[in-house]
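Pasting two entries for a bug report.
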Amino acid sequence: MVGTWRLAERGFFQDSVYSIRVDTVSYNRDTTFYVTRRYPTTNPQTLTFEADGKLTAEGNEVSYYRPISNYRVDPDALRPDSDTLRLNLFISTNGANVRFQQALRVRQDSMLIIPPCNSCYLKFVRAR
């Protein structure tokens, strides 16, 4: 897992507002739809995992991970019959380290990070 990983694909829910007009009255409607976005190799969005537990993020699409200074992979799977691991992420805030977890799957040269939202994911490929 140590190394630089380039974001290749991301699945997420996006909010949207649209207007409808009934007679002479306009109404705003809020809706949510699922987006699958693929990223080119130009202008790479990357996460770099160092052997000493440091994590760095480069690019706008991975800006969520910028405040995270450290990581640790829990070697115990979430379920005994699963290949999914726990990725522990640490944010330093007000002098304290706050930990939160996301699911992680690593297979050869691809990595999948699964945030705690239904059907959301970030798929990375090894960059170096």
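Entry 2 (this is the one that rendered wrong in the viewer):
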Amino acid sequence: IRSHFGSSWVSTLIIMRLLTHNLMMCNRKQCSGGYPLRICPKEAKEDVGMRDSDESSEEETVQQERPAFKVEESEFNPDFIRHMLDKLEWDALIASIPQCQGLTQTLPPSYTQADKDDEN
């Protein structure tokens, strides 16, 4: 498993978050084929405080762009990965990685039972 999902915490976290995303679906009647949801991260705005406007005395919120996603440290958990593999749509997981611009992780087009049993 580690050979496909990476030994570093960076690849593990990215894959774990994408695994979680892979399980989400739209239950609305208007959604045809609402599983899995398509992931489209965009730049987001973040409030960073208040400032005085040059043109008026009213204060306005300052917003700065921030990445749509970030990498946070997480330990590799082979049992979690094994458990999740049976629940997810592998092709959708593979398709979601390029949609997250800036990610360099790659996964094989498929996996086998031997891959699941191998902890390296």
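Dev reply: Rendering is fixed now. As a check, the viewer should reflect this: The chain has a mean pLDDT of 64.
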